[in-house]
User: Which sequence fits this backbone?
């Protein structure tokens, strides 16, 4: 049952206060955790894409079927993690990492990869590190834009994915041969609609508008296919433009599409994306939300399809903080916090009516979304209850510490571990956790935007004439629908 955990959180929240020493200790502990994973990756896995932390070996393709579409033999963890080194003040380590990338990474490979994962992890990592070299005033005598050259190379190799009848890219592309004849003509909404920040920045830095144009067309094409309720489906046929799955939610398959509507408006000062975001948020809050939980509904009728939530949806409170909807963010966050306290992580899917994990979705691969929202809520409120949540997260993650890193949880109910440490653990999970306890960090005092992979894009580039320090006002009016669900007391509990 979750309700005792919610009550415990309520009591603790009234009195929690962290000392400066406790904050410093937490920050240094997170940094040590990062280097436990990062150094072991360099020692035991590089130049492979990821580290197997239990067996202390590198992960290569062909281990996990389509799950390996994120792997391309391009030292994924290193490329994805570089800017985290700068966040933690490790400039020397960052420069060394850049040199390794320049010397070893190539994209001229006969390998088929995920367009989405390669964009947010690899292209985003390269662009972030490139622009931060100048932003942070780093004097690297030998650096002459090599990361941007690599970024343009991988961006150009992903472009063939957009050669479809609809302009919506296929989900996978071969880095040498483009779209293969037997490639599936389907993709998820988030997969096709979460490319604009990275491709847009690439266009601005290279003066080649093609990258921004194709990703903008993809977003608009998806948006035109929304239902009369303003909802989008989960998967779509890139040739016909017909929805293949009409489930609508804020979790897997849709999550970061919402995020990039809002962030693309801010980053590129494009009001068209703001209008889309405003309507998308209004529809999500009207048709998906029940007492701080977000369900899966039919995109055409708005009726409940599945009464479950997904761990990926834990990013939503952080996004709500960005638009100033703090009360809604806190309501959703306390639900995810109750789940974290119960399991020491968030199961991939959880049924809120039965109060149990959905069969086959018991795992927690060290995802960052809950920590991300905790960080943004603390930034907005300075309420130390969120530092307390961060401390709980540290304690939980330390339980998954193994010889060469941190292992994913294969089953949150039994605690069984998996020999897996995705690159996003170092890139996102520990980055947000570190920043939570480092209020004076240059990220927290500057003007920057996080991509969906927590890569750092300065909002101080040439086209940013008026950086937006505060979110625009909400213009939508949300009227909730009644899903007629009978929720357990734990799901109805309120935490201020």
Assistant:
């Amino acid at each position: 049952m979750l309700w005792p955990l919610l009550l415990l959180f309520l009591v603790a929240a009234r009195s929690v206060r962290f000392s400066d020493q406790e904050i410093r200790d937490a920050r240094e502990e997170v940094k040590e955790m990062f280097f436990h994973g990062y150094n072991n990756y360099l020692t035991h896995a590089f130049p492979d894409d990821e580290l197997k932390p239990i067996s202390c070996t590198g992960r290569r393709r062909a281990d996990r079927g389509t799950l390996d579409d994120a792997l391309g033999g391009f030292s994924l963890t290193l490329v994805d993690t570089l800017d985290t080194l700068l966040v933690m003040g490790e400039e020397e380590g960052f420069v060394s990492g850049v040199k390794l990338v320049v010397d070893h990474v190539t994209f001229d490979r006969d390998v088929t990869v995920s367009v989405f994962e390669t964009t947010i992890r690899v292209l985003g990592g390269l662009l972030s590190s490139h622009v931060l070299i100048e932003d942070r005033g780093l004097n690297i005598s030998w650096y002459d834009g090599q990361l941007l050259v690599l970024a343009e190379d991988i961006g150009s190799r992903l472009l063939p994915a957009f050669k479809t009848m609809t302009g919506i890219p296929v989900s996978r592309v071969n880095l040498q041969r483009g779209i293969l004849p037997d490639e599936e003509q389907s993709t998820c909404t988030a997969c096709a609609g979460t490319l604009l920040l990275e491709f847009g920045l690439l266009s601005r830095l290279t003066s080649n508008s093609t990258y921004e144009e194709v990703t903008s067309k993809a977003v608009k094409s998806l948006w035109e296919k929304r239902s009369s309720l303003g909802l989008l489906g989960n998967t779509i046929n890139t040739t016909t433009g017909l929805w293949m799955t009409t489930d609508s939610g804020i979790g897997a398959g849709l999550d970061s599409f919402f995020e990039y509507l809002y962030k693309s408006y801010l980053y590129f000062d494009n009001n068209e994306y703001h209008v889309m975001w405003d309507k998308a948020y209004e529809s999500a809050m009207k048709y998906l939300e029940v007492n701080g939980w977000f369900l899966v509904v039919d995109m055409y009728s708005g009726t409940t399809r599945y009464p479950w939530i997904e761990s990926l949806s834990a990013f939503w409170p952080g996004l709500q903080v960005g638009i100033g909807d703090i009360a809604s963010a806190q309501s959703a966050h306390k639900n995810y916090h109750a789940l974290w306290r119960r399991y020491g992580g968030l199961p991939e899917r959880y049924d809120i009516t039965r109060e149990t994990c959905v069969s086959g979705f018991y795992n927690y691969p060290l995802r960052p979304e809950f920590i991300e929202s905790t960080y943004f809520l603390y930034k907005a409120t300075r309420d130390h209850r969120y530092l307390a949540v961060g401390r709980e997260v540290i304690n939980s993650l330390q339980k998954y510490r193994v010889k060469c890193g941190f292992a994913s949880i294969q089953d949150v109910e039994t605690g069984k571990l998996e020999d897996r440490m995705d690159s996003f653990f170092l890139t996102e999970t520990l980055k947000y956790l570190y920043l939570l306890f480092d209020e004076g960090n240059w990220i927290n005092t500057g003007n920057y935007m996080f991509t969906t992979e927590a890569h750092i894009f300065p909002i101080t580039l040439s086209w940013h004439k008026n950086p937006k320090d505060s979110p625009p006002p909400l213009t939508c009016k949300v009227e909730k629908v009644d899903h007629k669900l009978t929720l357990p007391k734990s799901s109805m509990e309120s935490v201020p």
The CA atoms of residues 115 and 466 lie 32 Å apart. DSSP finds 18 helices and 21 strands in the chain. The chain has a mean pLDDT of 92.
